[in-house]
Structures are given as structure tokens and as C-alpha cells.
Amino acid sequence: MIGVSTIFYGYGGEPIVTKIRKIAEIFKQAGYPPFIQIGAADPRAGYDQVVRGAIELKETYEIKYSLHQSVWLPSKDFYINLASSIEEIRKKSLWALKRSIDFARDIEAKRLSFHAGYATNTVTQEEEFLPVTPSELIPLGAAYRNSIASIEELLDYAGDDVQLSVENFNYRPERGYLFSLPKDFAVLPKKIGVILNAGHVYYCRMKLKDRNYQKQLIDSIAGRVFEMHVNDNDGSEDQHMLVAHGKVPLRNILKDVLRHQKMPDLIIESHKKRHGYSDDDLKNNIAFVAKLGNA
Fold it and tell me: Where are the domains of the chain?
């Protein structure tokens, strides 16, 4: 299926239920069944109210949902980090994602994807779209141990109700990003999937100046890609443009994925405000990606 992330309308601003409704209407205008990924956002309402609103929209528009990260945080300035060596931060991160698993069950979303962490104790972001700032880097070995322990706990909590996936990150060692190199994925538990971010694949290939990066990464996660974040950039930064607005070779990336498995769900993850897009731009991109997915 072709999906759209609510991150199109940013983290703040309108309530998450309003963003869901707007995307459902765009799908209706485009003539495709609505598949909406609820991404990180300020919900602007309580848990029960958001659940009711999401279910009402699901029934009205026949929406299929998936989730990314969590809209439920212990505080508005909290940044999820499953790899932190500060146990309080790791536990709060687990709480936020367990709440997201509860949310998935309550709105009948079958998948939750998330960032598996950073090799730093705390992470902050001063402004939306700006790079994250690590407090202090910690050894990679410790970060990966913390991350895997967190993932195992989340897998136990999710059981067979919700399929969990981690996202491939950009190669930014100076920021402590985990799971960006092909070898990193060897430590993942077998039960967890990977949400493959096409924009991150291209950025890493250009940053590392490695022609083989794309194939090696996709080979390392063969058969584990249930969803893809499809977005574009020019190779210099993770820009989250609409598909075909930059240089990401999405057709070629899909070709490598399909050597191992069937077509995953393709979720457009772009930023309206950052690039001055309109809702019509998103509608046209849904149609474009749908044709790409059927090619």
C-alpha cells in the first residue's frame, strides 16, 4: 500500500486527529485507499480522546494505520533514546514506546516503527528540522547493548499483536546515530523488522562515498522490510522532500529490496512547511508513488 506520514504537517500545530483527517481527505481526492502512519507529534488532546477520534476517522474513511515513534511522551521536551546509559531516560523511552504499542492495539494498527537510539546519554532538538544535539557520546558497545536490551523488552510487550521495526539511520557518528552501517544490523533480534528509509540510504551512500553501500545495507536486512519511508534529498542532508524532488534513486532501491521479498508498504515521509509544499503536491505524490509501487 501507499501511505503518508502525519509528519507532513509537522510535529506541533494542529491536533493529531486533525492531521489524520486532512490526509484521509487527500487520499480520497487522489482516489486511493487511505494508509496513514501516525508519526511523532504533540497530540494536543488526552489519550482517550485521540483514540476515539482516530477510530471514528478509521471507520469513516476506512483507514489503515501504522505508527512511528510515539505521540505519548513523559514531557513535551523529552527525546526518546533507547540506548541511553542513564537508566531513567531509557525507562522513560520504553514507557513512551510501550504507550505507543497500547495505542496501536486500541486503534487496530498492526505495526510500530521507531528509532533504536543514539550513542549518547541525552538527545535534544532545539527546533523542528534542525539536527539533534547529543549531550555526551558514550561507547558504541554500551549503546548497542542498551538498545538491544530495550528492543527485547519492547518485543516482549508487543507480543504477536504489533509488528515492531527499527529504522536505518543516517551515518552521523558525531551525533551518535546507531544502525546506519550494514554490519550494525547483525545484532538485531530476529523477530524485529526494519523500516527502510530510502532518503537515509542515499545520504549514507553519498556521505561514505561507497557505491556498494546500498546493496550491502539491503542485503544485511534481507526479508525484514515491512515498510519503507520514501522521501527525497540531494545527498547533502536528510531533507525529507517529496519523492522525485531530489536525487534519491528510489526505483533502484526498490529493485534491491525486491530481490529478497515482496513489495513493502511505501510511506511518504516529507515536510510540508520545510519545503513550501501544498496539499495538492502531496496528492500528486501519492499518485506518483502508487504507480512506482505497481511498476
Answer: 2-294
